[in-house]
Amino acid sequence: MTGRGDTTVLHLALRVEQDIFLVRQRGREVAVAVGLEHQDQVRIATALSEVARDLLAACDGADVTFAVVTYPDGRFGLQIDLAPVGPLPAGTYQPQSGAVARLVDALGVTTLDGVTVVRMSRRAPSNAAQPNAQRLTELRAELERAVPGDALDELATQNQQLIAALDEVRSQRDELAVLNEELQETNQGVMALYNQLTEELEETNRGVVALYAELDEKSAQLRAASESKSRFLANVSHELRAPVTAIIGLGRLLADEGSDPLTAEQTRQVEWIRSSAADLLTLVNELLDLAKAESGRIEPAWAEVDLRAVFGQLRGTLRALATPSEVALVVEEPPHPAVIRSDEVLLAQVLRNLLHNALKFTERGEVRMRAKRREDRWELSVTDTGMGIAPELHERIFEEFYQVPGRTRVGGTGLGLPYARRLVTLLGGTLELCSEPGRGSRFTVVLPTGGA
Ligand code: ADP
User: Fold this and answer.
1) Is the predicted pLDDT of residue 4 greater than 50, yes or no?
2) pLDDT score of 117
3) CB of 386 sitting under 6 A from ligand 1
4) Torsion sign (Cα): 335, 339, 344, 347
5) CB of 385 sitting under 6 A from ligand 1
6) Residue 1: what pLDDT?
7) Which of 112, 116, 335, 402 has its CA 20 to 30 A from that of 272?
8) pLDDT of 298 over the 70 cut
9) How far is the CA of 358 from the centre of ligand 1 (A)?
10) What is the mean pLDDT of residues 93-120?
11) Ligand 1 within 6 A of CB of 441
């Protein structure tokens, strides 16, 4: 009873009610023999008994063939063909229970050598060993030898399977309930965390807002303080200028040859008064300049400025300062086209100040002024071979009245650099310093070619 080809393992006739149990039982046995998993054994047996019942009712029975088939992907499975004894109603088959199709991989009607059969199949697990020809022969023999149990036995087996299935459903439901509970707990945790985070964020936000308000207030206070300082400086220096100028004038008058002659001591004292008053006037003038720049009262007069002219003028006026010392003043010719949109007077003031400082703080070597064009900006640098400035003082020397200790004997007010930086900012640029003690300094004015 080997049926078609080598792959058939069992052949059965389904004719009467009793045979349904037989088909079911043998179906399970074949499934076991082929290596299907326990769940699949139950599934295939259940599907088989349902289809057998349908076909018995509709077509008076069927011939059932069990075969082991190989799929295109190399795996194998169990295939069961039920060839109806009578014609299928409307030539097709629809299981009474819709759930049957879900128990197997495939269930449908197919035509084999002109015979219409109902075919179902289930794949074996990927790790199952495919039976070879010898094993199939053994299988056939085993199945033929096996004495089928009676309907009661099969009913008992079916009951056990049902109980096992119910147990499994119950344990799955319990597991699900536990999972659900855990999920709810996690959800609550997440919500709590979210609320806490939201609260913290709001608090931080409130803090930041308060901080900003405070910052605004402080900067308004700072602005007000800076304005009143500038006003104070401007007023005081303005008020001082007239009397100081008068003192200088009177001193000159006293020392004049046309006036009554003075004793040597008087001459010395008058000279001292005059030089002190001159220093004071410089300070007053610089204070006034700075106050003006800080209060924004300096409005640059923008124009096309010829750098060669500015450099030439500075070369001429400052040469006198450099001689007869051991310092050479080199003012290089700016590269062509040496034009920049700026304020000529303010720019000359800044460069003069830098050259003045460089000559003041250099005992030997040279002071060099050079202009370099870099894309859309000019770099105007004043380099000296003087005493240099320690890195920690690079910013301090731009503070008002700051002078590097020990260098004050060369004079000055400590107002030149803060003023120069103010002016450069007004012109839309920056004033940078590169210096090392003992190796000289380089102050660079960087300005946009097209103005601020
Ligand atoms: P001052 O009227 O004293 O020159 P500045 O504001 O122009 O005031 O300069 C501040 C200080 O920076 C100076 O007193 C000096 O100590 C230092 N300084 C400025 N330029 C140079 C330089 N080229 N080399 C060394 N030190 C310098």
Assistant:
1) no
2) 94
3) yes
4) negative
5) no
6) 36
7) 402
8) yes
9) 8
10) 88
11) yes
Dist. CA 354 → ligand 1 center (Å): 9
Closest atom of ligand 1 to 387 CA is: 25
The residue whose CA is least distant from atom 7 of ligand 1 is 416
CA of 54 to the centre of ligand 1 (A): 111
User: Does the pLDDT value for residue 293 go beyond 50?
Assistant: yes
| Closest residue to atom 13 of ligand 1, CA basis | 403
What does the alpha-carbon distance between residue 369 and residue 443 come to, in Å, rounded to a whole number?
Answer: 10
For a mutational test of ligand 1's pocket, the pick from 397, 432, 435, i.e. the residue with the most ligand atoms closer than 8 A to its C-beta, is 397
Question: Please, which residues have CB within 8 angstroms of residue 21's CB and are 6 or more apart in sequence?
Answer: 49, 150, 151, 154, 155
What is the pLDDT at residue 149?
66
pLDDT band at 426 (very low <50, low <70, confident <90, very high): very high
Task: Give strand pairing partners of 119.
Answer: 81, 108
Q: Are 407 and 397 in contact (CB under 8 A)?
A: no
Range in 84-93, 189-198, 322-331, 436-445 with the lowest mean pLDDT? 322-331
Q: Give the closest residue to 254 by CA, choosing from 268, 243, 241, 242.
A: 268
Cβ(397) to ligand 1 under 6 A?
yes
* d(C-alpha 424, C-alpha 351), whole Å: 10
DSSP 34-88: HT--HHHHHHHHHHHHHHHHHHHHHHS-EEEEEEEEE-TTS-EEEEEEEEESSPP
| CB contact at 8 A, 330 and 366 | yes
Which of 417, 431, 443, 444 to mutate for ligand 1's pocket (most ligand atoms within 8 Å of CB)? 417
> Cα(403) to centroid of ligand 1, in Å?
6
Q: What is the DSSP string of 360-413?
A: HT-SEEEEEEEEEEETTEEEEEEEE-S----GGGTTGGGSTT---TT-GGG---
Selection from 157-171, 357-371, 395-409 with the highest mean pLDDT? 357-371
Strands 377-384 and 364-374: antiparallel
Residue 58 and residue 10 in contact, taking contact as beta carbons nearer than 8 Å: no
Indicate if the pLDDT at residue 213 is higher than 80.
yes
pLDDT digits (tens, 9 = 90+) for 52-69: 999 999 999 999 999 999
The average confidence (pLDDT) of the chain is 88
Ligand 1 centroid to 253 CA: how many Å? 34
